[in-house]
Design brief:
The protein has 116 residues and is an all-alpha fold. It folds into two domains: 2-51; 70-115. Helices cover 66% and strands 0% of the residues. It has five helices and no strands. The chain starts with a helix and ends with a helix.
């Protein structure tokens, strides 16, 4: 039974393990002190450092969104409404549906911005 757990832990990526599993690995395979008080991020860093594992991926950076004004959104809505009208004349139901959804989302966005 212990062998099965060891196989599982080797197969499973460290980032996807639970805190409990990480604490078990840290207790068994490293000489770390204060394991039980550590949080997941601290445990991961300590285990990787102790085992000499390099970070595979850099942490994702937040992408800053461009600030949009209500006026710009309303201009976009008007533009989409004219496209929707043209699509209705062309009897393109799929495009009408897509444009309707986009208009709806932009209207919601204007409400969110005006509340903030």
């Amino acid at each position: 039974m212990d062998e099965e757990k060891k196989k599982e832990s080797k197969e499973k990526n460290l980032d996807r393990m639970t805190v409990k599993e990480l604490k078990e690995i840290a207790a068994e395979s490293t000489d770390l002190v204060g394991i039980h008080a550590m949080k997941k991020a601290e445990l991961l860093a300590a285990i990787k450092e102790a085992k000499g594992i390099k970070e595979e991926k850099a942490p994702k950076e937040k992408i800053e969104k461009k600030a949009v004004t209500v006026k710009e959104l309303k201009e976009k809505i008007i533009e989409l409404k004219t496209k929707r009208k043209e699509s209705r004349k062309a009897r393109d139901k799929r495009m009408v549906h897509m444009l309707r959804r986009k208009i709806n989302r932009l209207k919601k966005e204007t409400r969110r911005i005006s509340k903030a």
